[in-house]
């Protein structure tokens, strides 16, 4: 039979070999931010949009470049317009740029004879002539589709729109953005006068910040944990050994991410921080018990056996509940949340395994810690006094908890569901400010998409179909807030204007079927122009209504969509035209519909699991509220804080309740598992609770300090979602440890009935004696 030292060496060697294997997964890690990952996977609307975008293209494959004229000047100044034209021609030559729409290349087509003449709206060669410049600007501000799209309403800025190749990824996208920025600097555009918008811009910024923030958060978390561990154990091994376990679990979790090819995104970037604060709890519980035993003179191996026997079961249950809290996130239809829950849950289980394999092996192999007799008992006095105060003031504590519950439930009712396309960026973030620039000066950045399906064998260019589309367009501009719109109606109106000398009054639909038939010949020819070809299929059997608008938030958009549906029910003839709203923005908004459901499912699964654990441990339904109340109360309190502070329920904040409950219940599991052991050793419930409070109290406080402190490092994030994860989970755990130390012992003595204790009045008498 192997000696403890040989067994420890064998264990250590096996774990080193596993770490070498895990390193291959780390080599495959890539940072990733894909806007499409936030679509609800498996949703029929997503499948519909994928088919739709296969015909008409994605609605977010563009880059908006907003350029402001020098202060006190307009965009019609010759020098500024010439620089815009130079930049436009540069952009047209760039790889992955399909089409460029610019103020200097936008033209007014005129059909004369057999030819089509494109007359520019902005005559660069005549801008030095004040009268010609005035004519151009007057025509531009009278022409539909130019102001709010290419030209700002105040004539102080313009937008250059770049259509890019579909689903352009980060490396080629970064190259394109770098080339564009370099050219803008060369042309003398000041950084503060340049504004960038679009999916690719956000994608590039998010990934770059993820790299920096991941390094910062891990460093801060490790430093904080080191300080707290040193404060707790006052020895180098009390710092190094738990961190070794955490490092191993983090490497294992990230290796799984690498092997799967999922990549590190906005959510999985939190995995190392989570492990620094969550994965260390089992090590602290084990080492705390080990220090107590060795401080009383017990040899290393026996002390380890006692500590593992008393800690392994409770730690196993707590690891199960914590990992389950993360695993329930896999029910989410949002891929980043699903991946975060899966790989963090697996990393928690890896941390548990390492705690009871790697940690004991290192303790056996390392020299025995030098401690004075009674080390580990320094907290007994303060904890005993705290327990006495709690039990003496138990009525006040219970009344305070009840009032807090009622107040929090009232405040929580004010929490609203709300999300925006750039939810994770702070209001003063430069990217957010750039997007707001396009909302204030131009049409906005939120895309709108509607699939147009003619009925009864009609073409999309049937006059009756076009009139139905025009009525929808008018409503969208008048009531919905769409500031820019294009559809087959735009094609027909533009061609009719071109056939009538480019006169603005001719920009309208034909008045008769006869005129429409004459136009169709030109529609087939001019409809292939870049700005028109994505609005109808070549066979003219389907069409697209597309536009942009400011992002008012998902709640407002839901009301707008309801109004649009009511309008179409009353005014759109479905025998002529059927429509279906689709698009990336609609899919992102749809996530909100599932947030409450996913959150309740996650907490519900956790509650059922904890209930099952309590029933197995105590075989008593009376103990279920003992465990659930101290852990559900903090969640309700934090929901109340969200309601009071106006923090909305969105993708990032919806996950905190499931995660926080799974983590917070750990200390309760440790407490009741130790209580179960003490009930077999002590003659009364009161003495069992008192001894459990002393044994578990230090570990509960220390792990809670580590958890709250670790999550507080996320408050430095530039992403709102990460900030709120740190703030709200930290608050939940803080309230949780307070409930653990106050409500839990009161509830145990109130509800638990041990057959050896006797009648209820005897129990009450014992409580009064404490």
Automatic annotation (TrEMBL):
SUPFAM superfamilies: Multidrug efflux transporter AcrB transmembrane domain
Protein topology in the membrane: Multi-pass membrane protein
Keywords: Cell membrane, Membrane, Transmembrane, Transmembrane helix
Keyword match Cell division: no
A GO CC term assigned to this protein in UniProt: plasma membrane
SSD domain location: 249-365
Classification via InterPro entries: MMPL_dom, Mycobact_MmpL, SSD
Source organism: Solirubrum puertoriconensis
Coiled coil feature spans: none
Entry's transmembrane regions: 214-233, 240-260, 266-291, 312-334, 340-366, 396-415, 599-618, 625-649, 655-675, 695-717, 723-752
Name by which UniProt lists this protein: SSD domain-containing protein
Gene3D superfamilies with a match to the protein in the record: Multidrug efflux transporter AcrB transmembrane domain
Family as reported in the entry's similarity comment: Belongs to the resistance-nodulation-cell division (RND) (TC 2.A.6) family. MmpL subfamily.
Subcellular location: Cell membrane
Lineage top rank: taxon: Bacteria
């Amino acid at each position: 039979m192997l000696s403890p030292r040989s067994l420890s060496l064998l264990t250590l060697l096996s774990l080193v070999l596993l770490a070498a294997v895990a390193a291959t997964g780390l080599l495959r890690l890539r940072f990733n931010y894909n806007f499409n990952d936030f679509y609800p996977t498996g949703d029929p609307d997503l499948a519909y949009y994928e088919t739709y975008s296969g015909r008409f293209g994605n609605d977010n494959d563009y880059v908006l470049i907003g350029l402001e004229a020098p202060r006190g000047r307009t965009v019609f100044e010759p020098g500024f317009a010439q620089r815009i034209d130079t930049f436009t021609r540069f952009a047209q030559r760039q790889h992955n740029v399909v089409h460029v729409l610019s103020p200097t290349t936008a033209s007014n087509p005129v059909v004369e004879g057999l030819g089509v003449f494109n007359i520019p709206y902005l005559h660069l060669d005549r801008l030095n002539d004040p009268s010609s410049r005035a004519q151009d600007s007057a025509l531009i501000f009278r022409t539909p589709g130019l102001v709010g799209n290419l030209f700002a309403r105040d004539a102080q800025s313009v937008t250059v729109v770049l259509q890019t190749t579909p689903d352009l990824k980060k490396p080629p996208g970064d190259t394109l953005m770098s080339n564009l920025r370099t050219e803008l600097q060369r042309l003398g555009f000041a950084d503060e006068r340049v504004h960038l918008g679009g999916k690719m811009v956000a994608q590039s910024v998010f990934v770059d910040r993820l790299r920096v923030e991941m390094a910062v958060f891990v460093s801060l978390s490790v430093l904080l944990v080191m300080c707290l561990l040193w404060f707790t154990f006052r020895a180098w091994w009390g710092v190094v050994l738990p961190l070794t376990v955490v490092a191993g679990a983090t490497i294992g979790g990230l290796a799984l991410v690498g092997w799967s090819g999922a990549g590190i995104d906005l959510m999985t970037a939190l995995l190392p921080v989570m492990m620094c604060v969550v994965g260390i709890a089992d090590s602290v519980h084990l080492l705390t018990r080990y220090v107590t035993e060795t401080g009383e003179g017990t040899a290393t191996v026996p002390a380890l056996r006692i500590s593992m026997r008393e800690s392994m079961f409770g730690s196993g249950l707590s690891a199960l509940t914590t990992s389950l809290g993360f695993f329930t996130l896999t029910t989410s239809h949002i891929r980043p949340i699903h991946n975060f829950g899966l790989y963090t849950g697996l990393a928690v289980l890896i941390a548990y395994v390492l705690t009871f394999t790697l940690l004991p092996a290192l303790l056996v192999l390392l020299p025995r810690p030098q401690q004075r007799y009674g080390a580990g008992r320094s907290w007994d006095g303060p904890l005993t006094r705290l327990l006495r105060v709690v039990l003496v003031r138990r009525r006040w504590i219970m009344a305070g908890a009840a009032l807090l519950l009622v107040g929090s439930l009232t405040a929580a009712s004010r929490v609203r569901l709300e999300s925006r396309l750039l939810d994770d960026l702070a209001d003063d973030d430069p990217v957010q400010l750039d997007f707001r620039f396009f909302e204030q000066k131009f049409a906005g950045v939120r895309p709108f998409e509607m699939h147009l399906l003619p009925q009864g064998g009609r073409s999309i260019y049937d006059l009756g179909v076009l009139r139905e589309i025009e009525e929808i367009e008018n409503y969208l501009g008048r009531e919905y807030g769409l500031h820019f719109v294009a559809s087959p109606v735009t094609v027909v109106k533009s061609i009719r204007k071109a056939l009538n000398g480019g006169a603005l009054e001719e920009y309208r639909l034909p008045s008769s079927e006869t005129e429409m038939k004459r136009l169709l010949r030109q529609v087939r020819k001019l409809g292939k122009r870049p700005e028109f070809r994505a609005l109808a299929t070549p066979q003219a059997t389907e069409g697209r209504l597309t536009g942009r608008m400011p992002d008012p938030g998902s709640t407002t958009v839901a009301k707008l969509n309801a109004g649009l549906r009511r309008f179409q029910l009353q005014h759109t003839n479905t025998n002529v035209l059927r429509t279906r709203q689709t698009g990336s923005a609609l899919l992102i908004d749809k996530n909100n519909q599932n947030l409450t459901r996913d959150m309740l499912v996650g907490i519900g699964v956790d509650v059922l699991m904890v209930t099952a654990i309590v029933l197995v441990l105590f075989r008593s339904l009376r103990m279920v509220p003992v465990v659930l109340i101290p852990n559900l109360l903090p969640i309700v309190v934090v929901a109340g804080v969200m309601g009071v502070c106006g923090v909305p329920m969105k993708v990032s904040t919806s996950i905190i309740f499931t995660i926080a409950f799974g983590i917070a219940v750990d200390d309760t599991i440790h407490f009741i598992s130790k209580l179960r052991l003490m009930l077999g050793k002590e003659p009364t419930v009161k003495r069992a609770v008192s001894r459990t409070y002393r044994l578990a109290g230090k570990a509960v406080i220390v792990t809670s300090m580590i958890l709250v402190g670790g999550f507080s490092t996320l408050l430095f994030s530039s992403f709102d979602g990460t900030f709120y994860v740190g703030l709200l989970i930290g608050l939940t755990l803080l309230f949780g440890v307070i409930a653990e130390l106050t409500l839990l012992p009161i509830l145990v003595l109130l509800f638990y009935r041990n057959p050896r204790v006797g009648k209820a009045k005897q129990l009450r008498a014992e409580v009064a004696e404490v």
